[in-house]
């Protein structure tokens, strides 16, 4: 029997797929402490991984491990260098995690640009008429420029939604050809600073790497329009949180939406939690019925396909 550890609970549809397959013996591991993972993972052949950090100390103990199937597409919680050295495969869930995040980004852009929370509160607080005569900060998306940083699976879903709102789309992704961006209706930006200066909205959909860590800091935000908004659904470290808080407080930018944080959950004293100019969600861009089910099914199917030697190459991370 092939032994699989399901690290961190996932949607039942994925767990059932593995449990109902007679080739596999599965255990769901909910305690994600390093000690527990060390003691539980040493004899497994495969791991499905949602939250939980799999570092080299843990991997060192996993003498039989052949594959890690990530529940999602980011893999900054795994020691990829170690995986490469030991020839352990790393799989991701491909396009299953792109529609919901793209919709989440649109929701955040719309919520902020339409001052939605203010309107909601004004109705509840009996200010229905009063709000009519205040100076409106809400703005139309039509003809506004969005800069999408990272034009992968999510970026490509996002552009369609932005074009539907008649926005102009600028794309900064040095690894994607101009032709591909143009064919999808975007304009390739070669110098990030040029894009930042023009953008009314900035959306980040890049992996967290040495190059993207803190790629948006105070210096970059100062290049942006005072009326601009920033949406980050990628990874917390991509924006410098302290700088973002300062930029919002000093009106360097207008607003922000964050689904991800440098430390998750964020510390109680993280000033962004009290900052009214930022809209927050708990790493929830994929929390839809469709996405959680599809992601879990794909995570499980990747394990099955791996051991049956029929894996779709698009699911394999080149280490
Ligand atoms: N909030 C959530 O729940 C959630 C859900 C899914 C994905 N994510 C995050 O979003 C990221 C993007 O997801 P995806 O599926 O689109 O990934 P992807 O791998 O398909 O696309 C990432 C794109 O970023 C580009 N890129 C890499 N380094 C860059 C750089 N320095 N500057 C500009 N572009 C760069 C790559 O060329 C690629 O096109 C993931 O890495 C993950 O961390 C978050």
Characterise the protein shown here.
This protein has 319 residues and is of the alpha/beta class. The chain is 35% helix and 16% strand. The chain has twelve helices and twelve strands. It has helices spanning 12-19, 34-41, 56-61, 80-85, 99-113, 116-124, 153-164, 178-183, 192-198, 218-223, 241-249, 289-307; strands at residues 2-7, 24-29, 46-49, 67-70, 89-91, 145-149, 168-172, 187-188, 201-204, 229-232, 255-258, 278-280. The chain has a seven-stranded parallel sheet, sandwiched between helices. Strands 2-1-3-4-5 form a five-stranded parallel sheet, sandwiched between helices. α1 (12-19) runs parallel beside α12 and α5 packs across α7. The mean pLDDT is 97. Bound molecules: nicotinamide-adenine-dinucleotide. Residues 72-74, 97-98, 101, 149-155, 172-176, 205-207, 209, 211-212, 233-235, 259-260, 283, 285-286 line the site of nicotinamide-adenine-dinucleotide.
Put the structure in a nutshell:
This protein has 319 residues and is an alpha/beta fold.
Question: Count of DSSP helices?
Answer: 12
Largest sheet: 7 strands, parallel
Present as ligands are: nicotinamide-adenine-dinucleotide
User: Unreliable runs, pLDDT <50, ≥5 residues?
Assistant: none
- Straight-line N-to-C gap: 28 Å
Order of helices and strands: EHEHEHEHEHHEHEHEHEHEHEEH
The SS-based structural class is alpha/beta
Query: What would you report as the Rg, rounded to the nearest angstrom?
Result: 21 Å
Cross-sheet strand order for the largest sheet: 8-7-6-9-10-11-12
What's the oligomerization state?
single chain
Shape: globular
What percentage of residues falls in helices of 4 or more residues?
Answer: 25-40%
- Mean pLDDT over the residues: 97
